[in-house]
Amino acid sequence: EEKPTMGILINGSEDSDSWYKDTADMQVILKDNVGLKSYILKVNGSVVQETGIQGKEFPISLSLSSLVNEDGIASVSIEVKDAVGNKSSWEKDIKVDTKAPSLSDVSVEGDYSIIGDIAYIKENLKVLGNASDSESGVAKVELLKGDEVVSEGLPATIQDSGSYRIRVTDNVGHVTEKSLGDVMESINDIIFDNKSPVISVESGADPDY
Questions:
Q1: Which of 32, 124, 147, 199 could disulfide-pair with 4, CB 3.0 to 4.6 Å?
Q2: How many CB atoms lie within 10 A of CB 12?
Q3: Res. 16: pLDDT tops 80
Q4: Within 10 Å of residue 156's Cβ, how many Cβ atoms?
Q5: What is the model's pTM?
Q6: Is pLDDT above 70 for 135?
Q7: CA angle 42, 44, 47 (to 5 degrees)
Q8: What's the CA gap between 53 and 142, in Å, rounded?
């Protein structure tokens, strides 16, 4: 006797070893040439569907996004039996990244003075911080001046005047950003000022002799 078969799709395509972004909708078609009897579906060890069935074909649908563990993994297992006792099983870890990356402990090192909403810098300013992602992982960390990427990775060094922010992107495209203005007492811009003050003396009228 032939065993039951399972056709499995995730988001309408064959299941992949890659990370899914935000959504992983599983569709399963159970088939058997004699007739189906029952199936059981587990996610991360817990039964989420279990029922007796009839007929030679039966569809199953399940959204996995809300069932992943803290690492973004849904360990899915399916076991199906047919009317004469034949069994088939399938199991796989489906990876779904539903969270943005984290950016913590952001700070700056260097000599600067804040006047109003501007930070005046005499020399280079070092930017530090920790980027992490518990699911698909961090793909890149960038320091931007306006919309231009001026450095990759942390720590990074600011060497020019402008408005700066840090951008962290994970491997499925989630983004977290933090402006240096939020770190440095709500400033809007950084200005390099490495010139000494100029003293200008205006001479008066020629004295009368």
A1: 32
A2: 7
A3: yes
A4: 19
A5: 0.82
A6: yes
A7: 30
A8: 53
Cα 94 from Cα 202, distance rounded (Å): 77
- Candidates 44, 46, 29, 43; CA nearest to 88 is 29
- The tens digit of pLDDT for each residue in 165-174 reads 999 999 999 9
Name the amino acid, one letter, at 61.
S
Answer yes or no: is pLDDT of 1 > 80: no
pLDDT tens per residue across span 67-89 = 999 999 999 999 999 999 999 99
To 10 degrees, the CA torsion angle through 32, 35, 38, 43?
A: 20
User: Under a CB-based contact definition with an 8 Å cutoff, are residues 11 and 25 in contact?
Assistant: yes
